[in-house]
Amino acid sequence: MFFNNLAQLLQDFFFTKIRSAALAPVAAATTAGAASIEKSFRNVGIRREGVQWCRFRGQKGKSRMKQSIVRLIPSKLRPPMRRLYQCLEYDIGQRIGPMRILYQHLEYDIGMRMGRRDALNPPKWLHPIGSSGFKNFKEVGEEFFQYFVNIGGLQPYQRVLDVGSGTGRMALPLIKYLKDGSYEGIDIVAPSIEWCQNTYTPRYPNFHFHFSDIYNKMYNPTGKYKASEYSFPFGTSSFDFVFLTSVFTHMLPQDLDNYLSEVVRVLKRDGRCLITYFLLNPESLELIEAKLSSFTFRYDLTGCRVENADVPEAVVAYDDSTIRSLYQKYDLKVLEPIYFGKWCGRKKGLSFQDMIVATKPH
Predict the structure, then answer these.
(1) Which residues does residue 48 pair with via DSSP β-bridges, in sequence order?
(2) Fewer CB within 10 Å of terminal CB in the chain, N or C?
(3) Which residues, in sequence order, are bridge partners of residue 185?
(4) Cα angle 173, 178, 182; round to 5
(5) Structure pTM?
(6) Sequence spans of domains, the chain
(7) How many angstroms separate the Cα of 77 from the Cα of each of 11, 25, 71, 80?
(8) Average pLDDT over every residue of 77-103
């Protein structure tokens, strides 16, 4: 494992392609060192083209490269190299972190100036909300847009609240749909909200974003307010449709209880809400026991189960009976069926997380 990690570290360190002219001085300064490395790598079948190293091709390319790099290290040097690796891993990690952020800023700025980047494609340094690339970002948004319309009954003229709006993943597909309606998004990650305010609102004046400075150990550890006491910054009965995607999957019972009460407060009569969960029931528990699930939820807390005892908000699951009881408590009518997801290894599921659509009776 050590040598695989060392090989990966060397591979990542030496094979990063320089794609910005702003980094040219760095490349020039390392030419002498790169020449000696190139000579060694040529001996094991790796060649260099321009500023990019050509890796082994084929499905086993990475494994072959790691083995080749390991063979460059004499056996007598491996114990001290292990200690060196541990130091390098920490030191390079500390140095590369800021450089990676700088590169991401340069990449974003150059892409925008040259017109090569979609203006609504959020920068990589912002909190990604589970997204891996803009294509996936758009696909997930489009997926949920279909749920909003086909399951939630969202209409183009309605007023919408997105709790946990992030970098606009759900807002993106709504810009062409809410022609006569409006959108309000709230989130606890300030940079994401600021980016959305500067990017969406000038282009789409009916889209607004608001920062909620709520404490969350995972996403906003310096927040001023408790989620269990927070009131949404909107009037009573002001929205036709409220949705929370991957929000209650990161909230503990008291916080969830308060948020659900706020959802009900801001909903109009006959308004609807769509909320995602990780729901525990006999089927999902059986799949977890069979080790088919993406999560184990091995830690029991009062009222819920979590994946990480140190950071419980990382992933949270609830018994579906507990959630149903909360809906009854706040006079929310579940529009059956509950749409169970595939997170637990279920072969048939509408999405990844479980989904409940409910209405506030007239």
Answers:
(1) 53
(2) N
(3) 162, 209
(4) 115
(5) 0.70
(6) 2-113, 134-359
(7) 19, 33, 11, 6
(8) 64
